[in-house]
TrEMBL record, chains A, B:
L-aspartate binds at residues 173, 219, 449, 486. The record marks 30, 82 as: Important for tRNA non-discrimination. Its main location: cytoplasm. This is Aspartate--tRNA(Asp/Asn) ligase.
Amino acid sequence: MRTHYCAQLNENDVGKEVVLCGWANSYRDHGGVIFIDLRDKTGLIQLVCDPADSKEAHKIATRVRDEYVLIAKGKVRLRGEGLENPRLKTGKIEVVVDKLTIENESAPLPFIIGDTNVNEEIRLKYRYLDLRTKEAYETFELRSKVAIAARNFLDENGFLEVETPVLTKSTPEGARDYLVPSRLYPGEFYALPQSPQLFKQLLMVAGFDRYFQIAKCFRDEDLRADRQPEFTQIDVEMSFCTEDEVIAIAEGLIKAIFTASGIEVQTPFRRMPYHEAMENYGSDKPDLRYDLKLVDVIDIFEDTELKVFRDIAQYKKLNRIKALPVKNGADTLTRKDIDELTNFVAKFGAKGLAWVKVKEDGDLQGPIVKFLSEDEKNRLIERCGVEAGDLIFFGAGAKKTVLDYMGRLRAEVAKKLGLIDKDRYEFVWIVDFPMFEIEEGEVKIKALHHPFTMPKNVDSEDIEAMTSEAYDIVLNGVELGGGSIRIHKPQIQKKIFEILGISDEEAREKFGFLLDALQYGAPPHGGFALGFDRLVMLLTKRDNIRDVIAFPKTQKAQCLLTHAPSPVDPEQLKELHIRIREPKKV
Amino acid sequence: MRTHYCAQLNENDVGKEVVLCGWANSYRDHGGVIFIDLRDKTGLIQLVCDPADSKEAHKIATRVRDEYVLIAKGKVRLRGEGLENPRLKTGKIEVVVDKLTIENESAPLPFIIGDTNVNEEIRLKYRYLDLRTKEAYETFELRSKVAIAARNFLDENGFLEVETPVLTKSTPEGARDYLVPSRLYPGEFYALPQSPQLFKQLLMVAGFDRYFQIAKCFRDEDLRADRQPEFTQIDVEMSFCTEDEVIAIAEGLIKAIFTASGIEVQTPFRRMPYHEAMENYGSDKPDLRYDLKLVDVIDIFEDTELKVFRDIAQYKKLNRIKALPVKNGADTLTRKDIDELTNFVAKFGAKGLAWVKVKEDGDLQGPIVKFLSEDEKNRLIERCGVEAGDLIFFGAGAKKTVLDYMGRLRAEVAKKLGLIDKDRYEFVWIVDFPMFEIEEGEVKIKALHHPFTMPKNVDSEDIEAMTSEAYDIVLNGVELGGGSIRIHKPQIQKKIFEILGISDEEAREKFGFLLDALQYGAPPHGGFALGFDRLVMLLTKRDNIRDVIAFPKTQKAQCLLTHAPSPVDPEQLKELHIRIREPKKV
């Protein structure tokens, strides 16, 4: 129907007859001539409907209102001197219309397109209007381009995209499953996959060697700001590979994705053992765009007069005293800032936030200074590498709590002092995760990894010291994804289940088919997954996951556009052999 | 871990040190030397473990059994004269092993890999073994390549891949939905999409202009041989387009897909109005690889002595008398063949199958000939274009029944006479579908199209004559997909709902959000979908849809590998506010 898209036209097209299609972004009558800004996915162009050129087109133009759908035939000409619009890509030209068709009308809109002050609920209800902005189109254009780039990279590296089932059985991620009642098998249910984990491992057993999929995954969890009930991940698995080889593929993939987004990144990325990330940054997803680092000072306080520190310093394995030196902090952080930071860390279990400033003369100042010996002060200054004008915060207490709140303090200070360069991309692999997490006497597999993760030192007697061949990729403090080398030998798998207290029966019921598969010649294999929605969010610098999903759900898992979920016909439930459980009457 | 894949090696690699990884496809001890055929995704290569080369490797080789996972280091050499294996791509070479690792063992297999005589249930239960054949790998390799080619073609043509929700509301295809109970909204359910139809239309309203998706779709129907509960379609939609423009994109896409599969196809494809397809081929998905065609002969029998034909010929609108002339049929079809074909059409409602043969002298022969006048015979011979040695079948009766069984007869005769060239690809667009189907007084939308299809002559009083801007693409008698131009004006949509007897209330409840969207400036738009599984099936010449799906379900919608569906924990149901409806006790 069209000869060009609106913003494809430029000065070189002057004199051309064109047909354009799109929406009336705005219109105005100026001295009997009607000017319409016509919009399509590429942008805007000005249409001129002058009765001197075409009476008929002008007459139709008088009926045009916001968001009417138009087809306009006309000739491109230069705007007159002084009439150019430098804010518009096509601002030097306009189209003199000789034929105008109103292809469809529009009722008055519930909100102005692009108005971000409109309540999100209204925007989600009319998502098709919310998506009419240039910004939205460009976000989904990037999302599409990035997916193509990812696929082409993986294809070129010998990976096959294989689709795994959506109607399937529970997977081992341990979150809550979405269930689908079966019509043919009364009382039985499919589960929607939390990931293609088991299937991709089975494809390795099948000898497919290199698999990937951009896969929909499902978790029926209470939603945080950056979670959705269904999300997309780039899922990769390969055989006969070492941890280094998997990491190299992941780096190549990330590089291809960023290149497609116009961002150059340097590979290989740095790697950091989990232990180091926790001790130095108080997080297993450290943001390395700024230079703040925690310093271990517990040994300095072994015999200090400051009783609370001295007591804590007696148990070096269970406790931590961490310093966070802040360059120029004595000058840049006000008393009010420090109070706010004290309140901030209190939310995460800190019982206070000790601090000292380094004075001009090099001596320390602050509420705790009077308890410190000269030797302690000197060792502190040396250990933290501080000088005049700097400030040191202290966190002291149980290891886990201190690392957590000092990590958060680090990020908060960086934010407060504007230390974060938004244009930097700092990637880091976190490696050497502990295999198990021991909490209140119970052995758990380390968060985000599953019981098929290969341990590095499986024969060790000390399960606390056992690390895993798992790796997470972190960008600017956000976990993009991760993976592991998997267990491919039945006897190792058996041992891990034993340590985890998973009985043979439970293991068989949940993962019996995987355990079977491991018996028939499973190759060594491993892989990773990247959260695709979050990746697109970072690439487009949007801060809401809903901005990068075409038809998102609310944090309460509702689609306000289609009204899903919704009640269904009782006949449907009957066919599915279920009934609704009526709430108990009180 | 490896330096090469097995079948990458050839004579040029002689002398090279290599490391290979894979499975013991077979092994044999020949005079104290062990020969192992090592297999990976690329194929086989022979490993030689001679104690004269490495005592240790040979010792390990004695433990190797079928499907053990091996890593072999060694040197490539030419096989001796007369020892070459011409059936193997690597048959001129072998690898002399100096280091062999058994990376994993394998229990004895439940069946021999690649044995197609094994019961399908067993093969599906151990799908990861069933997929270990070269044929399976190549099928999924093609599937992956074809998907990449489709995406790149659409990307290059300005289409964005946009993911639409899986947890959503009922869509208008009218098949049974899979439902997902909501945990947060007691008594409410999501539905899995039967297609992204409504969402893709909303994306057009949003101004996205060109959308595609390779999308999972779901239908809870009783399964035929070529159906699965979840299937994949290439789904496309575009704005400001004519039927011709959509068809051109579909043809470009199909061409790109076939080219990626090594098959050249010529575009544009021919087009055939629905009416012509039905009258000439007795099917709206005619197989055009062979030259058989139905001929209308009802007028010839208006005054015939053959009473049954004469009676039928009195009602030309409701009835049909169709001839199927078969070149050389008098010689190639035996009496037994004709009896079989008579039984065949009887299954589809034929009350008999009249036939005549053309004798050497040009006269006709057969049970009905004695009732025919000279004039009728001459007109028949001329109309059907038959000559000596040919045969004509006749179908007579109610239009729908006759067209159906004569269409099936046409295909069956082609099969019997070996007229089908398996290497030909005959595409045809079926166009100008009637908009409505009137069955027993009830107006229905024509099968496979939905109530959003644009009628061609909406102001016609005769709804039977109303055709739609819908088009199906047929390849070799198989429907690959289809689409339509959609209704974008609320008033036309309203009229169609009226004709269909869909009340305002019902329309609002089911598609309210689409009707809303049409009010806010919906552009003209249309699109299509191609069945991706079926396409891959045709491209790989497999005749079972399960062969092209990595983890398929049985015709009873079960996954025999994971045992889905399966019972779940009663606690889970409680959280979802449902209970199982116990079967009535008799």
